[in-house]
Specification:
- It is a single chain.
- It is built from four helices and no strands.
- The N and C termini lie far apart (74 Å).
- It has 104 residues and is an all-alpha fold.
- It has a domain of 68 residues.
């Protein structure tokens, strides 16, 4: 059952142009044209996961304690105070007219 689904999914009629087979684009040294190989993705994706994990670990173990020792406070961004004049100007019109600008 799984083989039938996979064969249907990877059908040459779905993915390749007419008169082309998977053997035509298979990697090999005797080919006139060298296409990219699906195995080229096997290095960047795990390497990206390693870098993301390394960054997470370094942030938690090294950089956060170092920042606290240097006196940097771990604060959240504060919400901007309400400004009724700016809200009214924004609601009046979001586009600026040329008359409102002092352009020479």
């Amino acid at each position: 059952m799984l083989a039938t689904v996979l064969n249907t999914f990877w059908s040459e009629y779905v993915w390749l142009p007419p008169n082309t087979t998977w053997a035509d684009i298979a990697p090999g040294p005797e080919k006139d044209v060298i296409y990219t190989d699906h195995r080229h993705v096997f290095f960047p994706i795990p390497l990206a996961l390693v870098f993301i994990s390394l960054r997470y670990i370094l942030d938690r173990i090294v950089f956060a304690p170092l920042g606290r020792n240097l006196g940097i406070k771990d604060t959240r961004p504060r919400r901007a105070p309400d400004n009724p004049k700016l809200e009214a100007a924004y609601k009046a019109g979001s586009k600026t007219s040329k008359e409102g600008l002092d352009v020479n």
